[in-house]
Amino acid sequence: MALAKPAGGWTYDDLFKLPDGKHYEIIDGELYEMPPPNWEHGQVIMNLIRLLLPVVERIGGYLHTAPQGVFMPGADPVEPDLFLLLPEQQHLISRRGVEGAPALVVEVLSPSNPRHDQITKRALYARGGVAEYWIVSPEAATVEILVLEGGAYRTHLRAGGDEPVTSPLLPDLTFPASAAFR
After folding, report:
1. What would you report as the CA-atom Rg of the chain, rounded to the nearest whole angstrom?
2. How distant, in Å, are the alpha carbons of 13, 24, 38, 39, 103 from that of 133?
3. What distance in Å separates the CA atoms of residue 111 and residue 114, rounded to the nearest whole number?
4. Most CB atoms closer than 10 Å: which of 42, 119, 141, 148?
5. How buried is residue 178: exposed, middle or buried, by Cβ count under 10 Å (0-12/13-18/19+)?
6. Where are the beta strands (DSSP E) in the chain?
7. pLDDT at 84 over 70
8. Distance separating alpha carbons of residues 148 and 157, to the nearest angstrom
9. What's the CA gap between 93 and 110, in Å, rounded?
10. 8 A C-beta contact, residue 12 and residue 25
11. DSSP designation for 152
12. Partners of 145 in the beta sheet?
């Protein structure tokens, strides 16, 4: 749910004026209150970390989770569930978070607002230059991998059950989609 600000668009500095205890993202000047994730959401993130981390460590990349601010055009900031910086993207790391598009962003759909990740953040990440975007649905038990081509995402794969998940960005990565939902 976007919250209105009568005197113009929301900015990073405005976050420090808000009451504690709530979680927010700013996309195109709109403030979005993010409800806390449920247990299943957190478990899927942990499973994905276990699956991704060995490959990420081998290539010398950086795998991070929310809450970590990612700042790029239109994002002031957003906090993806997971994101990957390749070794050559180390220069994007700053005191306040990441200043630029990660190579890979993973969003685990929340039952309270899946359209936020499927529409709003998908458009933001494409515009910002995120090379690979994963949309993970605990409800459908599927992993969808989108690859940026010509400024828009095309579906690389949508996998469920024992279908293999593969990543153009991480060619050594493969796992059955079901492993994300155990």
Report:
1. 16
2. 27, 21, 22, 23, 9
3. 6
4. 148
5. middle
6. 2-3, 23-27, 30-34, 62-65, 70-72, 75-78, 82-85, 93-94, 97-99, 104-108, 132-137, 142-149, 152-160, 164-166, 174-176
7. yes
8. 13
9. 27
10. no
11. E
12. 134, 157
| Predicted structure pTM score | 0.90
What's the confidence (pLDDT) of residue 172?
96
Six-digit token pair at 95? 């005191």
CA–CA separation, 163 and 136 (whole Å): 14
pLDDT tens digit sequence for 12-55: 888 888 877 677 888 888 888 888 888 999 999 999 999 999 99
CA dihedral of 74, 77, 80, 81, whole degrees rounded to 10: -160
Containing H/E element for 52? helix 39-59
Which fold does the domain 36-181 belong to in CATH?
tt1808, chain A (3.90.1570)
With a pLDDT cut of 70, the percent of the chain lying above it is 95
Sequence ranges of the domains in the chain: 36-181
